[in-house]
Amino acid sequence: MWIDEHVVLPDPDRAVVAVGPPAAGDGHWAGAPSAVAADGLIYLAYRLRRPIGRGRGYAVVVARSSDGERFETLTTVTREEMDAESLERPSLVRLPDGRWRLYLSCATEGTKHWRVEALEAADPAAFDARSRVTVLPGDPKTGVKDTVIVRRGGLWHLWASCHPLVNPEEADRMVTDYATSADGLEWTWHGTALSGRPGLWDERGVRVSAVRWRGGRVLAYYDGRASAAENYEERTGVAVGADPAALTALGDTPAAASPYGRAGLRYLEFVDLPGGAVRLYYEFTRPDGAHELLTELR
């Protein structure tokens, strides 16, 4: 009963396109959103991608909107500026003092390794890659990316997608590990919060995409896939837990998917608005195989 009262799931039929892909067809994506409501506006960071061999995740855009649907670009950070082979999902955070921080998932050139770096600025239009600091370096055995970051009760909480690197053929596998921090820069890991389930739709890997505290418990949305062939086309599931470091996936099938292609619906994000409304953002596979960034007001 608890889960029925609190879960909000995407409904693409009621969504509008917030950001279209850079081109039509497979491998062209706009998505992996992170959003913040502040000062009567919605600020959005998202990743742009081209097919492998033609740029991959070539930029992260920071934009703003007065209505949550039509966005004005404030700044763009490129993979070249970050010395990265590719950029993946960012995390945009407003700091307690009013400044802004942008966490960027960066692929290390010529490897399967990922790391997370952070930029800070007084204004979200002013992020400068030259000021970056590495906050989650990973290690030779683990790539770290796609952070979800929540500040609650004076403590920073982080869930990150972690990938094994010992065997390159297994590097697409992923679990979600959990960490905490006093300042959002130096993190203490607390182990794996969510793993795939053998024999089910999320067996190959799981990646937490959004976390909300509801009814004194943690409600998490996550991306999952059953096989390496479903890489880049994950679907959305739901997990819960009394402890943010220990989440349990619910149900034997995805909670949300696209009806097109390989059914990708991933990187779900929530923004709470004044008055109690909530806006959803997520990456959605179109009929032509491209990914677009959709939004819904609920």
Structural summary, described in words:
The structure is a single chain. This protein is mostly beta strands and 298 residues long. It has one helix and 20 strands. The strands form five sheets. Strands 1-20-19-18 form a four-stranded antiparallel sheet, with no helix packed on it. Strands 2-3-4-5 form a four-stranded antiparallel sheet, with no helix packed on it.
Offer a few descriptive terms.
298 residues; mainly beta; four-stranded antiparallel β-sheet; 1 helix; 20 strands
In short:
With 298 residues, the chain is mainly β. It contains one helix and 20 strands.
Provide the β-strand percentage band.
Answer: over 45%
Strand count, sense and barrel status of the largest sheet are: 4 strands, antiparallel
Give the ordered list of helices and strands: HEEEEEEEEEEEEEEEEEEEE
Number of continuous helical runs: 1
Number of strands: 20
State the strand order across the main sheet. 1-20-19-18
In angstroms, what separates the terminal alpha carbons?
Answer: 21 Å
Question: Helices and strands in order, then pairings?
Answer:
Layout (H helix, E strand, L loop, with lengths): L1 H5 L9 E4 L9 E10 L2 E9 L7 E9 L6 E7 L12 E4 L5 E8 L6 E8 L11 E4 L5 E11 L2 E10 L10 E7 L6 E7 L10 E10 L2 E9 L9 E9 L2 E5 L14 E8 L5 E8 L5 E7 L1
Antiparallel strand pairs: 1-20, 2-3, 3-4, 4-5, 6-7, 7-8, 8-9, 10-11, 11-12, 12-13, 14-15, 15-16, 16-17, 18-19, 19-20
